[in-house]
Amino acid sequence: MIEAVAVLGIIGALLGAMLGIADLFLKVENDPREDYVMSKLAGANCGGCGYPGCQGFAAALVNGEATQVSKCAPTSKEAKDEIVEYLNTTPGPDGSTLSVKL
């Protein structure tokens, strides 16, 4: 019985170490602009913009799929203006900026 517990403990430790190492090499880096845009959106997750929630719309804006912030009805005009200014002036990881409209 003790041998079985010891073997399972060793196997668990090895698998945990392998997962930790895999996490270092398989990490996906997010664009920091997406977090900023998400923080400015209303957070209603209504889907009225045509994307699956606010996170999906923020990703579409940053990736260039969506070019009009006005698709998000619940977000205030001031927040939309801030998003447009930020995305048009802040370069992404590749060094390019976006052309987003209100």
Task: Characterise the protein shown here.
The structure is a single chain. This protein folds into 2 domains: 1-28; 32-89, Orthogonal Bundle (3-methyladenine DNA Glycosylase II, Chain A, domain 3), CATH 1.10.15. The chain has 4 helices and no strands. The protein has helices spanning 2-25, 32-40, 53-63, 77-89. Helix 2 (32-40) packs across helix 3 and helix 2 (32-40) runs antiparallel to helix 4 (77-89). The radius of gyration is 21 Å and the shape is elongated. With 102 residues, it is an all-alpha fold. The model has no long low-confidence stretch (mean pLDDT 86).
Concise description?
With 102 residues, the protein is mostly helical. 56% of the residues lie in helices and 0% in strands. The longest helix has 24 residues, at 2-25.
